[in-house]
Amino acid sequence: MAGPGNALKVDESVLLNGARFVKENGEIKVTVVNFSDMQCPSCKAADIQTKELFDKPGVKIVMRLFPLPASLHRYALISAKAAEAARIMGKGFEMVAVLYDKQEEWSAVDKPEDNFAGYAKSLGLDEKIFREKLGSVEVAQNVQLDANLAASLQLPGTPTYFVNGEQVGAPFVVDKVKQLLGEK
């Protein structure tokens, strides 16, 4: 988490270039970019804290997939691919919500792909197409684009948030957004 005076500042166009998980509401005044790992417990907690921003007028929410190395989270990459496969099929943010909600469940099995396919089906997605997307080059490349961006920014881990291009610690994101919207 960046402290006062040493927060990383990044041109918003860099953070938004190639972004695929985007949700916006009305005329945008504040952009929140979150680099997240689906298997990261801290990311799950931060997602719960920032959920209220998802439908807030004037806010654009952007999620970038940043799977940490398998030595830290063995299913980080495949869970990022599950989120991306669902996004391509029109249910990206919904899959992210399910992945966080069921994080302990799929993290404890030997073959989480079966869990992910079941979650996709519960979201109304075709399970066969989802499995094809999950293993596709397109999905792998899309996840790698986000990971490459995180690496180029030398992000130390997840979750990492930027509000209007300035790095903000996860516990302070909601307050910062409210401040920028003139609500505090």
| Helix proportion | 40-55%
Write out the strand line-up for the largest beta sheet, numbering strands in chain order. Answer: 1-3-2-4-5
**So how many helices?**
9
| CATH topology annotation | Glutaredoxin
CATH homologous superfamily placement:
Glutaredoxin
The total beta strand count reads 5
Average of pLDDT: 94
Cα-based radius of gyration, to the nearest Å:
16 Å
Q: Per DSSP, what share of the residues sits in E-state strands of 2 or more residues?
A: 5-15%
Helix/strand/pairing category: alpha+beta
Brief descriptors of the model:
184 residues, alpha+beta, five-stranded mixed β-sheet, globular
Task: Please give the structural blueprint.
Blueprint lengths: L11 H5 L4 E4 L5 E7 L4 H10 L8 E7 L10 H13 L3 H10 L1 H5 L4 H11 L4 H8 L2 H16 L7 E4 L2 E3 L4 H8 L4
Can you tell me about this structure?
- It comes from Candidatus Collierbacteria bacterium GW2011_GWC2_44_18.
- InterPro entries: Thioredoxin-like_fold (IPR012336), Thioredoxin-like_sf (IPR036249).
- Belongs to the thioredoxin family. DsbA subfamily.
- With 184 residues, the chain is α+β, with helices and mostly antiparallel strands.
- It has a single domain, classed as Glutaredoxin (3-Layer(aba) Sandwich), CATH 3.40.30.10.
- Helix content is 47%, strand content 14%.
- Strands 1-3-2-4-5 form a five-stranded mixed β-sheet.
- A hairpin with a 2-residue loop joins strand 4 and strand 5.
- Helix 3 runs parallel beside helix 6 and helix 6 packs across helix 7.
- The longest helix has 16 residues.
